Amino acid sequence: MTDNEAMTQAAPADAMPLFYSKPEALNPVRHGSLGLTARSDFAFARTAHAIPVVASEMPAAMRSYPIVFIGPGKAPVIITGVRQGENLFVDADGRWTAPHYVPAYVRRYPFILAEDPTTSGRLTLCVDRSSERVIDQLMAPFREDKIAPFFSGNEPTEATKQALAFCNQFQIDFRATREMIDKIDAHGLFAPRQSKVTLEGGEVLNLTDFQVIDEPAFNKLSDEAFLDLRKSGALGLLYCHLASTNSWTSLVHQASLRKAG
Predict the structure, then answer these.
(1) A single Pfam family, by name (predicted)?
(2) Within 13 Å of residue 90, how many CA atoms lie on the same side as its CB?
(3) b/e for 68-82, b at 16 or more Cβ within 10 A?
(4) Which spans in the chain are helix H?
(5) Which residue in 237, 100, 110, 102 sits closest to 167, CA to CA?
(6) pLDDT tens string 229-257
């Protein structure tokens, strides 16, 4: 792929989720001495030009990012870059550019719910052991930032409980979003699309391999079909996606700022 193309592609089904490389089920025996730095550092997202998003956060996300759908499953994502491997909203110091919304998928990291084969596939809280924010507390005296331990003895700390609650809510929102996407797809409202972005200086970038809601098809829905979408809760997702098309301008602005910098 050339620099003049930016493709949004879904990861293979057997690949690790975006950002994660070594998730481990949290337990006090294995991770009793570990904790999480309190410092916010989004450097792990610096190369993510497309990030998953759930329906409940789309009203906030649509103000800063275009929302599109990728892969066979039409997974909703926000577009954070015009080139593959570049997130225009994370600076060299790992800070997310204010006042832009930080997606829940990013805020959840390095935690994630995953199936634990030792408990019949039940979802359990995991942490990405490769994350630079996961620190052995023995290193605490040598660090300026505070470390929130995962366990106190054999009991999970408040920080771990909050991480579990956040991941549980994200999983609920993810499933609800998946049901909305399936309902929209059942009405045949997705259409492949390409977008041409012109940066300051005249450079033209072609963004390909994503899908959008076919607005003419949406407007032609029967009253019965429209009511079906309303009852499913999918209308909010639809309208947020359509409104987010205005945020391509924000993306181009960020690209211009990055180039100027």
Answers:
(1) SapC
(2) 22
(3) bbbbeebbbbbbbbb
(4) 28-31, 58-61, 104-108, 158-186, 215-219, 223-232, 234-243, 248-260
(5) 110
(6) 999 999 999 999 999 999 998 888 888 87
